[in-house]
Structures are given as structure tokens and as C-alpha cells.
Amino acid sequence: MKTNKLIDATKRYEATNRKNKDLQKEDLEKKCNEIGFPILIKASAGGGGIGMQIVNNYSELVKSIEKTKNLAKKAFGNSDVFLEKFIKNARHIEIQIFGFGEKKAVHFYERDCSIQRRFQKIIEESPAPKIEPAIIKKMAESAVSFATNQKYEGAGTIEFIYDVDKKKFYFLEMNTRIQVEHPVTESITNSDLVEMQIKFYDRERELNYLKTYVQLLPNSILFVHGPKSSGKSTVMLKVIEELKDRDDLVFFYYDLRKYSTPTKEEFLRVFFEKSDKKYLLNKLEVNLGVFKFGVEENFDFNNLSLNDVFAKINESINAVVEDGKKPVLIIDELQKLKNIYFNGNKSLLNELFNLFVSLTKMEHLCHVICLTSDTLFIDEIYRNSTLKNASEYYLIDWLRKGSIRNILKDEGFSEEEINYCLKYLSLPYEISQLINNKKLGLSVEETIKQWINVEKDGLKYLIDTTDLDEDRIYEVLSKFKDKIKIAYDKEVTKEEMKYIKFLIENEILFYDVINGIIKPTSIIEWYAIREII
User: Which of 136, 287, 327, 476 has the smallest number of Cβ neighbours within 10 A?
Assistant: First the structure.
């Protein structure tokens, strides 16, 4: 048996719990009188209102404890109970938080779950009606402080009881998981807590590596590569978010998703025009740096020489260095520069990367990090620049099976469903979408089969509409009939390379340059390939 006095959350966070052997009857009665009746008896090992009873005096408590213990034992396999002050005119408020371990936690405001039947929540709403904003603010601050002090990681909910008459709130408990009520929070904050949980759980290793990397002395270009939707951009933006306020770092981030870069002019605009996309970093909209010509200068990109351009880049970089800071240049979706490379402007990219080499390896002034899902494209650049001996790779691959299992378990998936998912799923967005689909009433099997059919139909259409030899494409795909990966240097002939490139460019296959293997971009894609060959 445990006693648990409601804690004033504005003062402290520790609960005073005592085990059965430490509690004598007179001590228990003393504690109950200190708390004050009525008192609520609750099961320690479970929720849902099972076994909860309100007692108005000590004799009622003695009679009711055994009943609650018996119900708790049957329902949860554990007979432990605890006692809690019952507040008659109360509101049940919970604060959604997300913790980042060593970093400060954040909150996503409140949910009011006061409307209940038999101690079970019926309606969740946000914002909480008829509670002063100042009270909610203090609750949120207490929740963030609690999670931060505990170095909590991932999504969680901190629950409070609010005494309407005294206008005081008390810490009740913390749920260390995403709860079924989280869509209420998502709808008012325009956030995806499930996606955040997935990305945080599985990418901490990658996040720590990149955070450490940008704080070291620049010495080479880093190519962060991985299959589409593996989380490369998310991890990189998280690095920026966590380090953007440091006095010694300046980030230049270029998102090439919106550029086709078929001409020299568009190529140059990539680096000199600020993106219209803003990134929500820690609830602040942040536009990251660009290389700039003087505001008083009028210039025509078509008439600029490469020397003019690279001189301006050097000028911007040196200005940061002279200010005692380290520049970090990040180019996302590097493969978008492919068009300019294969349309008669190879010298542009060759010279650009030669400049990057000088900034990293020769002068050690600036980190250059390129994110891409097409490493075969980098091989083309290697042949005509000094890049090969001045770069390194880092892989952000499929989700780890253990992480997928933990996420789905936290979301209430059965063991049978989890094992089925582990057979097919590999990417963060798949897990997030699967969880949402299940909430809409779609079965796991139904969702996955639908995805395979979509990928299969898309692949068939791609092959039917290309000018390449369809039979040769199917021959290449047949290599994946009985295995999910093949060795690049041993199982791909020179004649097959153009078909491999075609499938990589269209994000059907992925080349892992570190391990020297080619594989489908996802496990779902692999099953689609197997069904059409």
C-alpha cells in the first residue's frame, strides 16, 4: 500500500510514497488526517478508474482498501494501492510535453479532461474553458520544469488537479508515452507528435554525430546520404535548431527542393536568393543565412562570371571567420543540381565543389554538408574535381527494428500487429501514417497491402512510359526477387548501370556507398518489385 499526498506543483515535484511494510495502522490514520478527508483510493498498477473509491472517514477507508486491492489484483496483477486527497470542486488538466534529454523540454499547451464518467475520461478539449490563462501558464511551466529536470526523452503528459475554489493546482501523475488524446493537441498546434516521437527515438545517434561533427575543425565535405524519407533533412534541421544560438557557429542552409536549376542563372540564384520557406525551429520562425551581394549593387546573374560568384562566397565566409565564428554550409537535396550538371554546365559544379574543398580541407574555414538520396550522382562529380580525396560519407538509413517495435507498442499495437509491421515497414512517415490510419479504423494489413499496390502501380507506369528497354529494366529488378540488396561492384554489369541509374534517379532503388550495396528505397518498395517481376 502507498500513500500519495497531492503535491503543490508550484513549489515542488517529489511525492512522499511509503511501502506496505513501512506503514503501521496508526501511522496511516495520522497521514490520512493530515491529508484530510475525503480521500480517494486508487490502484497503483493501472488506470481507467478501476477500483477507485471515495471515502469520507478512516473507518470507511479501512473497509474499502481491501476491496480496491482485490479489484486491482484481478485487473492488473498487482494489489498495490495508494491514497490521494479528493478535491470535490476540481478540474483535471493535463499538459502535453516533449522532452529532449539533456536539452530543455517544450510544451504543447493543455487538454481539459474534466468531463468523466466513473473516473474515465469522456471528452477532451483545448483550450481549457474558464481557467485563467495565468494558471495554465504556470501549469505548463511546471510541466516543462519537471520534464527538463528529469532529463525526460520523447512525448509525455503531465497531469494536474486544479482546485477551482482555492485556485491552486497540484501534480497528479505523468504518463510517459503518447496518449490516445494526442490528436486534440495536434489539431490546435498544427504539430505531429507521433512523427516527432518516431524521429526523436530513432535518430538520436545520428543527431549526436552531426552535432559533434559541426563543432570539430572543418577538414572535408560530408555527404549525408540515405533513402528518400529516411529523415536526413529532419535530423539536419534539428542540429540547426539545437546549435543555432551558439556564439561560435553560423549556419547557411539551402533547400534545393524547389529548384530545377537547368540554367546557370537559376544555379546562381540558389545561393544568393533567400528561400521563401521558413522553418519552425523551437516555435520561432527562422530564416537561415544566404551569400549576399551588396544591397546597393544591381547585378545580372547571366552576366556574372564564376570568379565573381566564388569571390562573393569567399567574402561571406571570411567575414564570418573574421568575426570569430565558424560557418556551416548545408545543401539539402543535392541531387536537384543534377540537371545543370547534365545540361552542358559541368564546370559550374566542378568549380563550386573545388571551392568547397578549399574551404574545408585546405583552408579549414567552413564545414560543407550535402544531403542527398543519390550517391551515384556524386561519382560523376568525383571524376572531374578534387572531391574524391576530400570528402566522407554518413548514412541515415531505415529505422531500426527495435525503435519501430517500441513506438508501436507505445501506441497500443498488439504483438501480432507489431510483428506484421516489422516485416514490411522501414521509414518514419510509414509508421506515422500507419498509426493515423489505424485510428481511422483501417487495419494494419489493409493499409500495408494498399501501400504495396500503390508502389507497384507507380513502378509499372514508370517502366511503361520510359524510352529505355523495358525487358532490361525487369532483368535488373529480378536481381531483387530473392534478396533485398545486391553488391554494387559484383552484381551489376557496366551494361546494367544505366538501368540502375534510372531506378535510383526515380527513387525506386538506393545506392549505399558506404557498404557498397544497392537496395530498394524501402521494404514496401521491395515487395512491390517482387510482385511485378
Answer: 287
